Amino acid sequence: MATLSAPTATQLITPTPSLSSSPTPSPEPSRLPTPNGIRPSPLSSTPSPSSSVTPTGNGLTLPKTDQYNARGNLPNTIFAVSVISAVLGGIAAAALAFAAQPFWRIVAGSWARPQLGVYIAAVAVFHLLEFFTTAGWNVQKLSVDAFLLNNGKQYHYAHAFGLAEYFVSSFFFPRKFNSRLSASPWLTLVTIIMVCAQVIRSLAMIQAAQSFSHIVKNKKHDDHVLVTHGLYSWARHPAYTGFFYWAVATQLLLGNVVSTVGFILVLSKFFSARIVDEELWLVKFFGDEYIEYRKRVGTKLPFYFST
């Protein structure tokens, strides 16, 4: 999980080379005329002092301009903006849901069960927290990709399959939802497991900070350290462990049998291969220190195949 070095303000504005063999091409200079009709010089790469982005301990501050100065009683960071936006959006959505109650009574059938709503909320919160933790504690890797919405077709196919199984069961096997596996005690237990798994993943990303990456890195940067405290003293890949139990719990919540088994098998195979690949690099980065750490701490995944 190698990371990029802590950037300066200028580096955050100026594109940096990619980690591939081909350097990232420089952006073309603007062809739009300035108010006085003169185009900016393509040789000028120094950002204007009136507009700058600076890293802080709580994330990236928004650009400062000569047109408006923030009042300062709220954190002027991307992390704060994203959290406030999500909270306001959630309040608006809840209010609209209350207002639309008569409509939902008409269109909602037996498929509109509480567990479906909890599942949708859990998926949305997962993607929000992926961005929040990156914006707050790992700003070097902050981009729209941090939401993990473009996390590969297989991820979306898996959730689509789970929803399909739920709706097929609702329409053709409704008695399935009258069993103990759809009773409140069981659903409450599954929800608690799902929430705890989400907390494990998000907290692992926070504790690893700049040493965490959504992709396996093959280059060690100066700020990449071996994290062995906190959750990393319990599991050596706690973010993977948290995601595994979170994903399986979402399918248990929906009462899916086929999808639950499928998620367990597919995720076990995926994380086994990923951990083996990632640890090859971690051993190169940290040598005997990582080998000893690996001997002491397991993965806490129920089906982990090291070969």
List keywords for this structure.
single chain; 307 residues; mainly alpha; Four Helix Bundle (Hemerythrin (Met), subunit A); two-stranded antiparallel ribbon; 9 helices; 1% strand; disordered N terminus
Short description:
It is a multi-pass membrane protein. The chain is mainly alpha-helical and about 300 residues long. The chain has helices spanning about 10-15, 80-100, 100-105, 115-135, 155-170, 185-210, 240-255, 260-285, 290-295, and strands at about 55, 60.
Structure description:
By secondary structure, the chain is mainly alpha-helical. It has 2 domains: 73-108; 113-307, Four Helix Bundle (Hemerythrin (Met), subunit A) (Up-down Bundle), CATH 1.20.120. The protein has helices spanning 9-13, 78-99, 101-107, 114-137, 153-172, 184-208, 238-253, 258-286, 288-296, and strands at residues 55-56, 59-60. A two-stranded antiparallel sheet has the order 1-2. Strand 1 (55-56) and strand 2 form a beta hairpin. Helix 5 (153-172) runs antiparallel to helix 8 (258-286) and helix 6 packs antiparallel against helix 7. The protein is flat.
Per-chain topology:
Layout: H1 9-13, E1 55-56, E2 59-60, H2 78-99, H3 101-107, H4 114-137, H5 153-172, H6 184-208, H7 238-253, H8 258-286, H9 288-296
Antiparallel strand pairs: 1-2
Region (Disordered): 1-66
InterPro entries: ICMT_MeTrfase (IPR007269), PPMT_MeTrfase (IPR025770)
Organism: Kwoniella shandongensis
